[in-house]
Amino acid sequence: MPCAITIFSAQKILTMNAYQPVATHVAVCEGRILGVGSLDDLKGWGDYTLDTRFADKTLLPGFVEAHCHAMNGSVWENTYVGYFDRTDPDGRVWPGIKTLDGVLERLQEIERTLIDSEETLVAWGFDPIYFDDGIRMTAAHLDTVSRDRRILVQHSNGHLLNVSRKVLELASIDENTDVEGVMKDAAGHPTGELGEMAAQYMAYRVTDVRRFDGINANDLWAFARTATNVGVTTATDLHARVQDNNVNDYLAVTQNADYPLRLVPAAAGLTLSIEEGPGHVAGLKRHNNDKLFFGLCKIMTDGSIQGFTGRLKWPGYFNGKPNGIWNLPPQTLTDMVEAYHAAGLQMHMHTNGDEASELMINAIEKALVKAPRADHRHTLTHCQMADESQFRRMAQLGICSNLFTNHIYYWGDQHLALTMGPDRAMRMDACGTAKRLGVPFTIHSDAPVTPLSPLFTAWCAVNRQTASGRVLGANECIDVNDALRAVTLGAAFTLHLDHLVGSIEPGKYADFAVLDEDPTGVPVEMLKDVPVWGTVMGGTVYPGAHNKF
Amino acid sequence: MFTRPKTLLPFTVLGGFLGAGKTTLLNRLLTETQDTRFAVLVNDFGELNIDEGLVTRHDGKTISLSNGCMCCSMADGFLSTLSMVMDRANEFDHVVVEASGVANPGRIMDIAKLDPGLVPNGSIVLVDCPQFLSQLKDPLINDAVITQLMEADIIVMNKLALTDAATITGVRRRIGQLNPDCPTVDNVGQNLQPTLLLGGDNWLNTNTTVPTYRPASSVPGQSHDHGDGHFSSVVLRQGEPINREVFNRWVDALPSSIIRGKGFIAFAESPGEVWLWQKVGRSTVLEGYPAVEEAELALVLIGTSAMPGHNDSSLTELFVKT
User: Fold this and answer.
1) Looking at the structure, do residues B15 and B132 belong to the same domain, yes or no?
2) What is the CATH number of the domain that holds B157?
3) How confident is the model over B78-85, as a mean pLDDT?
4) Which of A68, A94, B160, B283 has the fewest CB atoms in 10 Å of its CB?
């Protein structure tokens, strides 16, 4: 071999490679895997450097996250006030806050650090539904932080916002305001909690908060740091704005030799016309490099189940709420599928409710009749409510699924009590059914909706445990090996990248997740607690930020 | 940083399911307007077919026209697009939003109720008459179609020529159940005047002058004062101050064939004060208007050809005989 060969030794290498699932050494040359096995097996390639720093670690294929968003990087510009612990890109753990008083204390701490009185204080991840006392935040609570500052507290569901009195005043929201989404107290005064588009529009109009107009290079670097911390070496940006400035930023970071992540931006179909979108997305492929993979398209169909905006088939929401919403008319969504399919492109379709899944299965079937194509790998992502008959059709039509198992932990109790009821909640994110019926599947975090952490996502698929500790649908649990496969080769398959990443075998990129323990050697309920040391990406070692403290 | 604008922009939402004819109407609005600079937010430029001779600038996200109008694509999201328009509010006289085929126009109109720079000018919902009854039977979309109709301030019956009388009767009956008394306009042929539907050129920009009715010159030779088969209008000039209770009863009795109304009025209880009265569809608003100098006290009403005219004493009895 003309190149310099490095052989990494490890306590154990889980390859996801069927002919040799376990090994101890992997040889790397020019960023790719030369061979896997024992040291003796690899010596035949010639001179090598033995790198033993992982001798007590377990290597897996670098994790592949097929549904997350690079804005996971930008949320950390603001203050986290969520209920659950969360780790920032620098590896600092922000403890979950369990009471409203605790949230106010954290905001008061931040207030003391702000010098410019005109700066808007923005917090994110707030989720009062978990508070035992059911208390809601009001503008009066935020008075204890500051009477004069513009403060926005974004709820974790993305649909609600709490604002300070200053924001209400600037937006002229008062007792005379009569629009949906402006919550009022018994006396008719706005509480400061705003839902719906119009109310939030006004709140943002009177602040200087950045309007989200697609990703920038800073976001992409922060995103990659988080990815490294949790062992991810390939990640989607699954609703990407693909205008020239965004494309240039994707290009700039991935052309940097130090950038530790392969990016798969999925063009947001909503931001493109049906006429021009397919050509534009196909044209983006000319920018592809070894860390950038354009060509995927994201189709948004319905809303979310916990927000009661997912589209459900009969019998609908358990608590009787009306059916959810479409982002576009079903016929338009069907036309989009046909157009992108006909252009030879692959789509990941956001479908939360089972009616949305059905619409997309029908659309793909129709598109396939018009333009037969083997191995399209169109993927229903979230696919939370799909029933067994839908999984059967997906198998027949070659459709993949990307299941939102993190939902079981974060909202499973709400699904049981409010959205689905005890019966249908058990079939949510049905990994067991997908496996049994032969539907290729992966699992995801939808970060920043829930934290990026494939081991946690795998733990959810294995244990199906809700935040309250209940097991939701034990028959849909999968075993640890299947869950680890789902977050590596399974995800790579749904991205059409399984020939490049997702397993440790010759010819593929030398991308590894480096774990402090063997995830198959711990009790299954501990899977999420296996520490991640960092990654190897393209043969280069990237320690997680927590290892730099 | 946001500052409160000096003039209020009328804000109109154009709703209706896919295929109802929103784009066709917007095309005509953009090309036929004389004096009103419309900012029109659309979902997609794809189907717009603006006369190239009118286009002065096209940058991918916005199309500027020589008549002062601008068309904006909402590909970057509705709220950021509207924010961009509002940052340039002084360049426009009227904002029109094309709701997506599944959107609830009422939730979009809430923005105009909140934003002090905007004034609600009605949700106009187009009905695809040949498709409407089957849309109501389609479980994937009927909830969206019903919500749109229930939230409408003005309903336009569209594509009437493409269906039969029995269907039209059925459509009218269902709409009557969903939104009784909502002013409903028939769009027969292509003669519906979009600028009139939105209130006429400069309809709501006359902060200090009498809102005079201005026929659109693009349809020469037709007398709008007595109707062109689609719209009629009546100007009512006030002589003596009117008792407020009497006026309110007169407003309540206006028939649904009157779609819009606007003007200045004074009441007997306080003859020195001037009030701005506006009607959009079913809703009417009366607000004190202290800044008016030398305002002529008069109301303009716009309605369908079925609206009462000057010879109808129930309409004119409070006002100066012409």
Assistant:
1) yes
2) 3.40.50.300
3) 90
4) B283
Residue B282 is encoded by which pair of tokens?
A: 């079913």
Q: Find the CB nearest B114 among A202, A323, A359.
A: A202
- pLDDT (tens digit per residue) in B214-258: 333 333 333 344 344 567 888 898 888 899 999 999 999 999 889
Quote the crossing angle between the two packed helices A277-284 and A330-342, to the nearest 10°.
40
Same structural domain, B168 and B312: no
Whether residue B190 is found in the same domain as residue B244: no
- Rounded to whole angstroms, the Cα distance separating B265 from B271 reads 9
Among B75, B116, B143, select the one facing A323 at the smallest CB separation: B143
Residue A309 carries which side chain, given as an amino acid letter?
A: T
Cis-peptide into A448, omega within 30 deg = yes
CA distance A437 to A397: 12
Looking at the structure, tell me whether residues B183 and B264 fall in a common domain. Answer: no
* B292 contacts chain A (CB < 8 A): no
Query: Domain range for residue B255?
Result: 232-316
Q: Decide: helix, strand or coil at residue A219.
A: helix
Task: Give the separation between CA A510 and CA A503, rounded to whole angstroms.
Answer: 9
Homologous superfamily of A217-537 in CATH? Metal-dependent hydrolases (3.20.20.140)
Mutate to test the interface with B, among A175, A326, A354 (most CBs of B within 10 A): A326
Cβ-nearest to A211 among B83, B108, B143:
B83
Among A residues 237-256, those touching chain B with beta carbons less than 8 Å apart: 241
Q: Are residues B86 and B184 in the same domain?
A: yes
Q: What gap in Å lies between CA B280 and CA B155, rounded to an integer? A: 12
Residues B159 and B269 grouped into a single domain: no
Q: What DSSP line would sit under A88-141, residue for residue?
A: -TTS-EE----SHHHHHHHHHHHHHH---TTSPEEEEEE-GGG-TT-----HHH
Q: Each residue of B147-196: pLDDT tens digit? A: 999 999 999 999 999 999 999 999 999 999 999 989 998 887 666 777 77
Topology of the domain comprising A73-205? Diaminopimelate Epimerase; Chain A, domain 1 (3.10.310)
Contact by Cβ (8 Å): A491, A442: yes
Instruction: Please count the structural domains in chain B.
Output: 2
Task: Judge whether B300 lies within some domain.
Answer: yes
Domains of chain A: which residue ranges?
73-205, 217-537
Which of chain A's residues have a Cβ under 8 Å away from the Cβ of B46?
Answer: 273-276
Cα distance between residue A347 and residue A380, in whole Å: 9
Q: Could you tell me if A129 lies within 8 Å of chain B, comparing CB atoms?
A: no
The answer to whether B143 contacts chain A (CB < 8 Å) is yes
ipTM: 0.90
Interchain contact, B86 vs A205, CB within 8 Å: yes
B186 and B239 both lie in a single domain: no
